[in-house]
């Protein structure tokens, strides 16, 4: 693809926009001929993105989508995703992001819970959709196959259209009686469901626009509007990529290189070299994979490259190896689905890795509290609670669940244990639910995993606690070996050198892969259930 220097254009200021519709329209009009999204050999510029979004919005309205209706998007990282996002806003609807690899049970819950009548889906998800049995669903738009193929797989009562047919129909969208306001619902972002039933975080237009503005303010001077290129390997249906990659970069008129399968490291290396990436977001496991892949040793990394980590803790060894490869440390941030998602981030001007999740974003108030909701001083560990314009309105149709996570004075309880240092940087210690209590001492899995990850022979690891009659709980460590000669004794000796005795794993188990969510978060619940079944002592 020929590399062309774009014409300098001023960025769009998110605070000046009243809704995502207003914001997307302003971005597409201002940066019209620039390339907006690339996915291998396919590309779309800002003007075409808006034009196709209008056509798809008209099609949605022709099939009964009205302002406030929920439209689900169940797609991997392909150009159809941002196209659907634009169309949903033009139609005045609410986007519901759905993992395209959900099984039928998970898909049924989300479609029914959100009362979704229209779904945009790819062929990879049709089998699950066929079994999901969602009575509310009436209309399906399939993006990468014909309507005939989809009809052969799905229930007969569904109206089915291909994306190509929807765009070719050329329906003009009906003008909304009233454009969305900042307090109106824009996105239902479902929590991962790793700790129970998945809940829909209600994110308003104001929540998302505020987070875009907050993040851009923190990164001021580090997004060159003439050359910004983001590589998006984290799924766009995840709120981290949705906001930090897709929405934020729109304001720069930058190019978004979409990676459909982040396991295809050969392709990622080629795309990186072709498009000269200047910004990437990723989880710890992605950065470790990139550093270990031979193709990235040949990449000419841009001097202005920014690597941002989130979703799970970035281990110091991962950042050190990333710097050895690229010349830059990873800037770690932190957030949740309920907070649009970014709450904190390390300043982009700093070129060091201090193990923190950074400082609070502008207009974000973060406190560390004990179990009695009392603020704790610097250095003490408690629950991180946050208040700011990016915090959700609540959980969709779950007022009781909303009440449980909000304090009396309007702070959102994150469920994460953290501390603040004297410099105002916050440090996540662990999830409250993941903390292990060994003989009255707190053991934080993140600390154990970071210590074990220092071993070159360890590819990845995860630890959990299980009931134990002697110590209350015991630490079980699961390890994926890079070197098959690595044994449990070597790991135990390493832990005894680097950890207090009560933190040393009682049992060490070698497995082929650590179970993770689609974005690379450890599924400790699955490991805990396995460990309890195999090793827990009766109480």
Can you give a write-up of this model?
By secondary structure, the protein is α/β, with parallel strands linked by helices. It has three domains: 43-180, 3-Layer(aba) Sandwich (Rossmann fold); 202-431, ANL, N-terminal domain (Rossmann fold), CATH 3.40.50.12780; 435-535, ANL, C-terminal domain (GMP Synthetase, Chain A, domain 3), CATH 3.30.300. It is built from 16 helices and 26 strands. The strands form five sheets. A nine-stranded mixed beta sheet has the order 2-1-11-10-12-13-14-15-16, sandwiched between helices. It is globular and about 70 Å long. The model is unreliable at 1-8 (pLDDT under 50).
Q: Supply the CATH class of the largest domain.
A: Alpha Beta
Query: Major sheet: size, sense and barrel closure?
Result: 9 strands, mixed
The CATH architecture designation of the largest domain is 3-Layer(aba) Sandwich
**Mean pLDDT, nearest integer?**
91
In total, the number of domains comes to: 3
Low-confidence runs (pLDDT<50, min 5 residues)? 1-8
Which helices and strands appear, and what pairs or packs with what?
Blueprint: H1 20-30, E1 35-39, E2 42-45, H2 46-62, E3 70-74, H3 80-90, E4 94-97, H4 104-114, E5 118-121, H5 126-132, E6 139-142, H6 147-153, E7 159-162, H7 163-169, E8 185-190, E9 200-204, H8 205-218, E10 229-232, H9 239-250, E11 255-258, H10 265-275, E12 279-282, H11 284-291, E13 306-309, H12 316-326, E14 330-335, E15 342-345, E16 359-360, E17 365-369, E18 382-387, E19 394-395, H13 399-405, E20 412-420, E21 426-431, E22 436-438, E23 441-443, H14 445-452, E24 458-468, E25 472-481, H15 488-498, E26 507-510, H16 524-535
Parallel strand pairs: 1-11, 3-4, 3-5, 4-8, 5-6, 6-7, 10-11, 10-12, 12-13, 13-14, 25-26
Antiparallel strand pairs: 1-2, 8-9, 9-19, 14-15, 15-16, 17-18, 18-20, 20-21, 22-23, 24-25
Helix pairs in contact: 1-2, 2-3, 2-7, 4-5, 8-9, 11-12
């Amino acid at each position: 693809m020929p590399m062309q220097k774009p014409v300098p254009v001023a960025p769009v200021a998110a605070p000046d926009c009243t809704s995502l519709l207003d914001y997307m329209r302003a971005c597409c009009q201002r940066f019209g001929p620039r390339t907006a999204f690339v996915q291998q050999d396919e590309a779309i510029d800002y003007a075409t993105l808006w034009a196709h979004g209008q056509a798809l919005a008209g099609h949605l309205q022709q099939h009964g989508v009205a302002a406030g209706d929920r439209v689900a998007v169940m797609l991997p990282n392909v150009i159809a995703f941002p196209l659907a996002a634009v169309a949903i806003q033009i139609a005045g609807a609410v986007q519901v992001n759905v993992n395209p690899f959900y099984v039928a049970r998970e898909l049924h819950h989300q479609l029914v819970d959100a009362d979704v009548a229209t779904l945009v889906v790819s062929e990879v998800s049709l089998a699950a959709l066929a079994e999901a049995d969602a009575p509310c669903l009436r209309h399906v738009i399939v993006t990468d196959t014909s309507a005939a193929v989809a009809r052969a797989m799905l229930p007969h009562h569904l109206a089915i259209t291909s994306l190509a047919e929807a765009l070719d129909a050329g329906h003009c969208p009906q003008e909304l009686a009233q454009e969305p306001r900042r307090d109106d619902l824009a996105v239902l972002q479902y929590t991962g469901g790793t700790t129970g039933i998945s809940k829909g975080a209600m994110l308003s237009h104001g929540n998302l626009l505020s987070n875009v503005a907050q993040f851009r303010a923190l990164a001021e001077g580090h997004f060159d509007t003439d050359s910004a290129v983001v590589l998006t390997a984290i799924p766009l249906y995840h709120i981290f990529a949705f906001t930090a990659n897709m929405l934020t970069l729109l304001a720069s008129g930058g190019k978004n290189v979409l990676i459909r399968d982040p396991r295809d490291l050969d392709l990622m290396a080629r795309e990186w070299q072709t498009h000269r990436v200047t910004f990437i977001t990723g989880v710890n496991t992605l950065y470790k994979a990139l550093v270990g892949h031979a193709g990235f040793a040949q990449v000419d990394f841009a001097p202005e490259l920014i690597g941002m980590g989130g979703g799970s803790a970035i281990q110091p060894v991962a950042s050190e190896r990333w710097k050895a490869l690229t010349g830059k440390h990873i800037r770690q941030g932190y957030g949740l689905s309920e907070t649009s998602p970014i709450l904190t981030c390390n300043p982009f001007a700093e070129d060091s890795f201090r193990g923190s999740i950074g400082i609070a974003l502008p207009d974000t108030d973060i406190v560390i509290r004990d179990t009695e909701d009392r603020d704790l001083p610097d250095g003490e560990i408690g629950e991180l609670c946050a208040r700011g314009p990016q915090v959700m309105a609540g959980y969709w149709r779950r007022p009781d669940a909303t009440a449980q996570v909000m304090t009396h004075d309007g702070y959102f309880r994150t469920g994460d244990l953290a501390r603040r240092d004297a410099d105002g940087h916050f440090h996540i210690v662990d999830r409250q639910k993941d903390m292990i209590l060994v003989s009255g001492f707190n053991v934080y899995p993140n600390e154990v995993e970071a210590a074990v990850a220092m071993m070159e022979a360890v590819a990845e690891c995860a630890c959990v606690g299980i009931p134990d009659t002697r110590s209350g709980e015991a630490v079980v460590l699961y390890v994926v070996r890079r070197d098959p000669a690595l044994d449990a004794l070597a790991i135990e000796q390493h832990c005894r050198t680097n950890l207090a005795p009560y933190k040393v794993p009682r049992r060490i188990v070698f497995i082929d892969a650590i179970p993770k969510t689609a974005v690379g978060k450890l599924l400790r619940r699955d490991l805990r259930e396995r460990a309890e079944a195999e090793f827990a002592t009766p109480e």
